[in-house]
Amino acid sequence: MYSQQSFTVSGTVRDASTGEQLIGVSIVEKSLKKGTVTNEYGFYSLSLNEGNINLTFNYLGFEEKTVSLGLNKNIKFDIELNESSEQLNEIVVTESSLENQVRSTEMSVGKLQTKEIKKMPQLLGEVDIIRTLTLLPGVSTIGEGSSGFNVRGGNIDQNLILGDEAPVFNSSHLAGFFSVFNADAVKEMKLFKGGIPAEYGGRLSSVLDIRLREGNSKHFSGTGGVGLLSSRLLLEGPIIKDKLSWLVAGRRSYADLFIRLSPDEEINQNILYFYDLNGKLNYKINDKNTVYLSGYFGRDVFGIQDAFGFDWGNTTATLRWNSILSDKLFANFTTVYSDYLYTLGTPEGEEFQFTWNSRVQNYVSSAAFTWYRTPESKVKFGLSNTYYLFDPALITGSVSAQLQRQKATEPSIYVSTEQKINNRLTLDYGLRFGAFFRMGPFTESIYRSGESLEDSSIIGINQYTSGQTIASFFDLNGLEPRISANYLLDDVQSIKASYNRTRQYIHLISNTTATTPIDIWRPSGNYIEPATADQVALGYFRNIQINQQKYELSAEVYYKDMRDVLDYKDGADLIFKENIETELIAGQGRAYGLEVLFRKNSGRLTGWIGYTWSRTERLVDGQYAGEQINNGEWFPSNYDKTHDISFVATYQINPKWDVGMVWVFQTGRPITYPSARGEYEGIIFPVYDNRNGARTPNYHRLDLSANYTKEQKPQGKWESSWSFGLYNAYGRRNPYSVFFREAEMQNYVTEAVQLSIFGTIIPSITYNFTF
Amino acid sequence: MKLLYTLSVLIIVLFSSCQDVIELDLPDSEPLVVINGRITDLDSVGITLTSTAPYFSQAATPRISGATIVLYENNDSVITLVEDSAGFYSAPYKGIVGKFYHVRVVVPDGNPNLEGGIWESIPEEMKRVPEIDSIFSRFVVDDVFQKDGWYPFFSFSDLPGLGDNYRLRVWLNDTAFDQADQITTYTDEFWDGRSFNDADLPSIQFTRSNRVRGTKCIIEQGSITLRHLNFLELLVTQTSRVGSTFDPPPAPLLGNIRCISNPNRTSLGYFNTTAVRRKVHFL
Fold this sequence. Notes:
Number of strands of chain B: 19
Number of domains of chain A: 2
Oligomer: heterodimer
Shape of chain B: globular
Structural class of chain B: mainly beta
Order of helices and strands of chain B: HEEEEEEEEEEEEEEEEHEEE
């Protein structure tokens, strides 16, 4: 039998104006009906039979390009795409594009483009990718001003947040109001709510993969803005054109200027601001090798004049080396340092002086490979190790004390295959194996068996020497299967299903409504089990064309089961606690729901309507007295919101003006009402016996925005725009919580009080520029 | 932690947050017994016996009369308390450091708002307490937290060995500073065995209110158990650290009281065993 020879065409796709690599570009040979998609570094590889081929490169917001190539040997073919010149033109993702939602095996994925987010209304004009993310189905928060986000019933510590592959421990500034990511520096973000690929691990509920821009490799440019809350500036450019480029971006808030205007002395003597810096350097060594160095440094600063200081934030550094080992084998080697720390205390020289430090550090090294075996099958494999250092507390000064350092390491390996079985069915199946080891030196308490873990039930200690294993999780429970399937019903509709198991070895210890900056991470060990989750999801995806306008519709149902999720004993005290296990109880969680998204990505009018119906519940039924919540019955979690509707639209009126709106509706969140009052030493206290048995009133809010882009002078490089916004446009006092207290100066009189974070309309104005 | 509460309130004030008193209908529930009492090494033993009431009843909670309360020392009954006034029981008995104390409370059937039963506190040891070394006044210049003026200080030396827990109570001109946000407790975990009048560990200023010279200041430092310290902290957080984004989870205020006649009956409050030292000072 005559067998035609097969060759490989591979290369990198870039933005023609900036030289940035483009992620997720679809490359298709239409007549052969074969294609692929660029990876996170813009790389693609496609093996086809010998002969003349026509490759079509297609990417949202860019002009489609088709090139003819004679394929009689392996070809290296790099290409640059041009941004669609006329903004008002219909930007079309063609049906054949592999990145369209019907064809991709990915499901339960949320994607947002920075360009899109910038047009939407934003709180105080601060373009915030995480806040915007919560407008997608399946993503929620407890309320305004709570750090992080909740995905499909998962706690905020169950999200793996990666900024250029570095885990970010705290994703918020100002304890929850703003994201630590500077939107100007972000190239692409992708949130996996389910169907999490095997290359990601270590958290139960989601992966938020944020890729930062590389910096313009063509010419020097900048972008920035001046707003009510903060100002920002990003500069980028080549050092050696198309070879070595850099980017730096910074933000600084000045909200504390407003604080000083307050007539209230309790308030106006405070200092409160944040700043952050992003930096990146890329060096293209040759056609096959590129290295990247990127870093982030952010701090929030709170002080009471100069008498007391408190600051916290993340630091990350990533060094990456991409290597095209062969036409079909792409490799990425990464080393990462990441930490989160906080420091509080009084200045030196005070009569009573102290400094309190806490820090979690993280060293990740990983190797990831993609083997483009055939156009029908792509294999990913790799290995990784994360080394952790937990320093929960170190106090020095007039008093001194310390909690023991905890060391742990988390190795993992994975392999997964994306395989086109036939024209209709594509499978992506993989397996991840993770393990976790706690290492000495460490002194651990031993508790009397058959009793609740209490300080009073300690009967001795175990002393571990340096390097000695304290606890290990290295068994079949570390296997995490990940499977997803896409079955094409026809060209415009498909059904997808996925199952994944995820496992989490480190835990954020927090029992307040919103997590606080001083909440600390702790590892699993002899008394804290790793948490495990199983999730299944089933979805229907359809592309719809009405009057030449393209729409996407998706509907997904999911069920998630979580085990050994940490909860806290009633009245738990988590601050400066060596034996933290005495305050914890392992609980269970379950979450299920329906998510519907109707979305329009192109044209003058873009946006989406999202609807989520969901339930998320917890069960805490420990073995011993004091280890049950709600008598060991299921109760709704703090962020259980039955209905969640979001309506997002932006409209380009003309080249100068665009407008945007967001409207959200959410069922009120669970809270606890007292069932009675009691009295102790004359103090009236509420008696609680039904955790989360009530709900706040419903939440709804409208935000509006308008952006004015100044007409660009023909020769001028400077381009500017104004953004105007109204957050909470109809000024609704949405409830954050209802709490109970004794009325001031009135003995025995109690009251229920609704707290609204935004008591009024929040207007904003921002001046933006690029050059 | 007060710091976090302040931070949260500050941030939300920045965003023009507001608090509205709202009307709510709360369902009534079965009344529970609340025991509030203590034994010291200086005073008579006293207990206030109350029951819970609807949250918005807007009056003192019902006092429980007619109960029989017996004090136990090292598990031997030593004295029966007498009801001095409705719901308040006392007996002239002082505790001794190192001994364990508990009470047994019997509420007969026929009480108007509460089913009868038997309650006991968990026996707790009267812990050692150091003497107060000194109490004195000092002129403090204006700083962030207070205005210029004379303020009272005290000092003591913690006894060597971890695990001493304290409660500090303050009276100024015989007015007790005992609102929920004025309850002060501390442990020796950061300064075990050290003296609060050293060069490196300053004396403790016990009020920040600007005081007039001549003000009568009384302080009482008492040793308490860790369980009681946790109980008081829970009382503080549940009543005065609410209304921020960092609210603690609502929790029942369980102390050391158990219902013996029906272990499933939730019982609230505390019978506290404490050795106390007091000092008086005129500013």
